[in-house]
Design a protein that fits this description.
Arc Repressor Mutant, subunit A; 2 domains; 227 residues; 3-stranded antiparallel beta sheet; 68% helix; mainly alpha
Length: 227
Amino acid sequence: MITAIRTSSPSRAHEAADHLEAQFRDMAPNERIGTKSELQKMLGVAAGTLNEALRLLQERGLVEVKPGPRGGVFTTVPDPVVQLGQTFLSVRGQPESVGHAVAVRDALESLVVMEALRNRSAASVRGLRGRIARVAESIDDDEQFLRQIWCLHEDIANMGSNQILTSMYLGILKLVEDATLGVVPQSKSVDYKRERLEVHELIVDAIDKKDVAAAERAIARHRLATS
C-alpha cells in the first residue's frame, strides 16, 4: 500500500517520485499502482506535484500512465538504455569509478570504432575530418585539446547503430570527462600531443576507408598512447 510522505523537502516532486519508486519497486511489470487521484490522496500532495513526480518516473522508465476507465498509473519494465543511464549516475563520484571507467572504455574502443567503420557515410567522415582539424588547432591548449579528443570519440560512437553500445560508451566517457576536466595537468609535451593527434588521424582514416586491419593497428597504438 502506498503511504503518505512524512517529511518536507525543497523538491516535493522529486521526493514524491523517490517515495513512490521505493514502494512499488517489488511490484510486477504492468501492475496497476492506482489512479492519479488515488495516488494524490495516498501521498498527500498537490495535483501538480504528483504530475511532476510521475513525469520524473516516466523519464526513469519506471511507470506508464494509461488513460480511460481502466487506466491509471502502471509499473513498466525499464528500457535497457535508461537502466544504463541510472547506473552511470549512481557510480558518479565514487573514487574508484574513474579507473574502472577508463578500463571499460579501453575495452569497448575497438567495438565502437568497428561500428563506426561499418556505418560510415560521406557526411559522417566529413564531420570527423572537421573534428580532427579542431584537435590540431587546440594543440597548444591542454584542456581544449583533451576536450576536442573526447568530442571526436563521441562523434565516432554516434556513428554506430548499436544503441546499447553507444549509450554505454558515452556514459563511461562522460564519467571520465567529469572527473578529469579542471584538473588536467599542464605537463604534456607538444610531441606527446602530436602523437595523440596522429593516432586519431589514423583511426579516422581507417574508418573512412573501411579498413579493418588499419583500424585494429590504430586502436592498438591508441591504447599504448593512453597507457
